[in-house]
Specification:
The chain is built from nine helices and two strands; from the N terminus they run H-H-H-H-H-H-E-E-H-H-H. With 269 residues, it is an all-alpha fold.
Length: 269
């Protein structure tokens, strides 16, 4: 499994570097849009696993549409309408649920899952577009990805070789305190190296706080997706990435880390 993870990661690396460095903001937003649709599809397979798909077909479609509009609104810097789009989504979802599910006591939960998916995936992914479109956007995207992915690798191997004490067994029995600590250590190591060489103008104390905050947010994101999968009784969100699982499995930490990184970049640095 570890070999498959490395092969998949190394195979995707050239495209990722090209996308960030040479693809431009438009192509970056387009790829984020595709990732959003695929991740939403995986999300709805998880949270709607026990429902009739035909009966709930409007839920994914509405999220795909509003999610894409949110991402492209951020790309076009029409950020004032994002809150309105989320409110509009809730109104439409609620209205449709009255007709589709008025005899179904679970209707409010289905609407809640739809709204959560919209915020969890396309809205959180839109922060990557925010970062990429901002000042020094390329450097900050690399900074974020290096910190998050280094933490994933560190947690995996520290947990595999040193893990003894369960971190949150009810949610993810395989995750350990040692793995979590190893992830934070590799967050710090990778983030500090990147900051030293590419962002030397930023203060060290604030940079360390940034790295730790992003690392913790990433681990929370990982555990949150594990909670969703555990509730559905599945191991992976999909199988599109050999050794990793689905797209959602690969970006779970990034989804929670991206908003944290953006707020640091915009308001603290």
């Amino acid at each position: 499994m570890h070999l498959k993870r490395w092969i998949t990661g190394l195979a995707a690396l050239p495209f990722l570097i090209w996308l960030i460095s040479k693809g431009g903001c438009f192509v970056f937003a387009a790829v984020i849009s595709i990732v959003s649709v695929v991740a939403l599809r995986e999300y709805f397979k998880i949270v709607l696993y026990s429902t009739n798909r035909q009966r709930t077909s409007f839920i994914p479609l509405l999220s795909y549409l509003i999610g894409l509009i949110i991402i492209w609104a951020v790309y076009r810097k029409f950020t004032d309408i994002v809150t309105a789009l989320i409110a509009f989504n809730l109104v439409v979802s609620g209205m449709i649920s009255l007709f589709k599910f008025r005899a179904d006591k679970d209707a409010p939960w289905l609407v809640a899952k739809q709204l959560m998916g919209l915020i969890y995936i396309p809205l959180f992914l839109s922060y990557l577009v925010f970062i990429r479109n901002g000042q020094d956007g390329i450097l900050w995207i690399y900074y974020l990805l290096i910190v998050v992915f280094a933490g994933d690798v560190g947690a995996l191997y520290a947990g595999s070789f040193l893990g003894k004490h369960k971190l949150c067994p009810a949610v993810s029995p395989g995750k350990t305190i040692e793995g979590s600590a190893g992830g934070l250590i590799t967050n710090l190591a990778a983030g500090a190296l990147f900051k030293y060489f590419f962002l030397p103008e930023y203060p060290w104390k604030l940079s360390i706080l940034f790295i730790i905050s992003v690392g913790i947010a990433g681990q929370i994101g990982d555990l949150f997706e594990s909670e969703l999968k555990r509730s559905a009784g599945i191991k992976d969100s999909g199988g599109i990435l050999p050794g990793h699982g689905g797209i959602l499995d690969r970006i779970d930490a990034l989804l929670f880390a991206a908003p944290v990184a953006w707020y640091f970049k915009e308001y603290l640095f």
